[in-house]
TrEMBL record:
<protein>
    <submittedName>
        <fullName>Protein trichome berefringence-like 7</fullName>
    </submittedName>
</protein>
<dbReference type="GO" id="GO:0016020">
    <property type="term" value="C:membrane"/>
</dbReference>
<keyword id="KW-0812">Transmembrane</keyword>
<dbReference type="GO" id="GO:0005794">
    <property type="term" value="C:Golgi apparatus"/>
</dbReference>
<dbReference type="InterPro" id="IPR029962">
    <property type="entry name" value="TBL"/>
</dbReference>
<dbReference type="InterPro" id="IPR026057">
    <property type="entry name" value="TBL_C"/>
</dbReference>
<dbReference type="Pfam" id="PF13839">
    <property type="entry name" value="PC-Esterase"/>
</dbReference>
<feature type="domain" description="Trichome birefringence-like N-terminal">
    <location>
        <begin position="57"/>
        <end position="110"/>
    </location>
</feature>
<keyword id="KW-0472">Membrane</keyword>
<keyword id="KW-1133">Transmembrane helix</keyword>
<dbReference type="Pfam" id="PF14416">
    <property type="entry name" value="PMR5N"/>
</dbReference>
<feature type="transmembrane region" description="Helical">
    <location>
        <begin position="12"/>
        <end position="37"/>
    </location>
</feature>
<feature type="domain" description="Trichome birefringence-like C-terminal">
    <location>
        <begin position="111"/>
        <end position="383"/>
    </location>
</feature>
<dbReference type="InterPro" id="IPR025846">
    <property type="entry name" value="TBL_N"/>
</dbReference>
<dbReference type="GO" id="GO:0016413">
    <property type="term" value="F:O-acetyltransferase activity"/>
</dbReference>
<keyword id="KW-0735">Signal-anchor</keyword>
<comment type="similarity">
    <text>Belongs to the PC-esterase family. TBL subfamily.</text>
</comment>
């Protein structure tokens, strides 16, 4: 019995040592995993906004539904000299006005009602910069038109170089002189630098996109208080390969690089620039996700504009472009807010320009009427900026 007791005690001791070693190994591995792969905070921010009751609930402002609201639209595009005639659907003959009378209602909260005087005072002395394609320019025009409703002397609002709003112009800046406020737009549809074809490139290569270099005008974006980016609509075969435009990294021509890979590379280039060049203690940075179009038909060349929002998103609430944006922004070391509008615009087949543009022979199921859907993007953007709404930019 004494001999068996010694053996049992020895085995028990060895077992405890083995268990302790195993626990230590698991703890060490867990710490190493957390060190190598830290938990990334969500990039689509939830925040507290007072709802119809006295409580404050966590709310993802991009989860919700469109509800009719007779207080909309918030401005008349015909009285706003900065709204392109091509986006002024009512002036171009659209008869049904219902598309302009919808408001986005998040599930658990309300977006603050637009108070133009409060917004103008909040933005006093600021510089706002939009960078992107024509969809970004539409949001830029929308914001100017919204803010002009609170300015008594309309002549105090002007484009700094006297330029008219056109589709191809590289830079536009509107100044609200009474508020020392400037709102700029830079046309940079890819965000990265376009370049001529390198020497000895195949004949089909007419130009390239330097996915490893940000657009050369990026130096003009830095000195801003609010910076809003968008991109995605030009990252298509028809805008790239069919036009003889291919991708380039350094001196290397990437003829076989898929568009999605190139977009990821370009966005990582943008992210590295933002982390290095932008002073985020001063500048609030936003990136708007992809805005779903409503083209239909076998070749996606048919444009049917409805009178009311769709009851189902029909899968348009998902976008590979948006997924890439969210993933890359989520890995950044500086605060960037994703304005994830993809789900909310998926229902708005009624909001497109259609045949009510300055060129009715060419239907348009990509761009939006003004006033219309882009106004809501700006109301959400402004809700992040207004004081007292319990909304954190970071």
């Amino acid at each position: 019995m004494r001999g068996h007791g010694k053996i049992w005690g020895f085995q028990t001791f060895n077992g405890l040592v083995a268990i302790g070693s195993l626990v230590s190994f698991v703890v060490a591995m867990s710490c190493a995993f957390l060190y190598l792969f830290p938990r990334v905070p969500p990039v689509i921010h939830s925040y507290g906004i007072s709802n119809s009751t006295t409580s404050v609930e966590k709310c993802n402002v991009f989860e919700g539904r469109w509800i009719p609201d007779e207080s909309y639209p918030l401005y008349n595009a015909s009285q706003c000299p900065f709204a392109e005639i091509g986006f002024n659907c009512l002036a171009n003959g659209r008869k049904d006005k219902g598309y302009a009378k919808w408001r986005w209602k998040p599930k658990n909260c309300d977006i603050p009602r637009f108070d133009v005087r409060a917004v103008l005072e909040t933005l006093r002395g600021k510089r706002i910069v939009f960078v992107g394609d024509s969809l970004g320019r539409t949001q830029w025009e929308s914001l100017i038109c919204l803010l002009m409703t609170g300015v008594e002397d309309k002549k105090s609002v002007y484009e700094v170089n006297g330029n008219k709003i056109t589709k191809r112009i590289r830079f536009l800046a509107v100044r609200f002189s009474s508020f020392d406020l400037r709102i700029d737009f830079y046309r940079s549809v890819f965000l990265v630098q376009p370049a001529s074809a390198p020497n000895r490139a195949p004949k089909r290569v007419k130009s390239t996109l330097r996915v490893d270099k940000l657009d050369e005008i990026s130096k003009d974006w830095i000195d801003s208080d609010i910076l809003i980016f968008n991109s995605g609509h030009w990252w298509t075969p028809s805008k790239l390969f069919e036009m003889g435009c291919y991708f380039q990294e350094g001196k290397s021509l990437k003829l076989g690089m898929p568009i999605t890979t190139a977009f990821k590379t370009a966005l990582n280039t943008w992210a590295s620039w933002a982390e290095t060049m932008i002073n985020t203690t001063r500048t609030s940075v936003f990136f708007r996700s992809f805005e779903t179009s409503h083209w239909s038909g076998r070749n996606r060349n048919s444009c049917k504009v409805t009178q009311h929002p769709l009851s189902s998103s029909k899968g348009r609430d998902q976008s590979s472009i948006s997924n890439i944006i969210i993933k890359i922004v989520g890995k950044m070391t500086v605060p960037v807010t994703v304005l994830h509008v993809t789900p909310m615009v998926a229902f708005r087949s009624d909001g497109h320009v259609g045949t009510w543009s300055d060129n009715p022979s060419v239907p348009d199921c990509s761009h939006w009427c003004l006033p219309g859907v882009p106004d809501m993007w700006n109301e959400i953007l402004l809700s992040y900026l207004l004081p007292g709404n319990d909304i954190s930019l970071q």
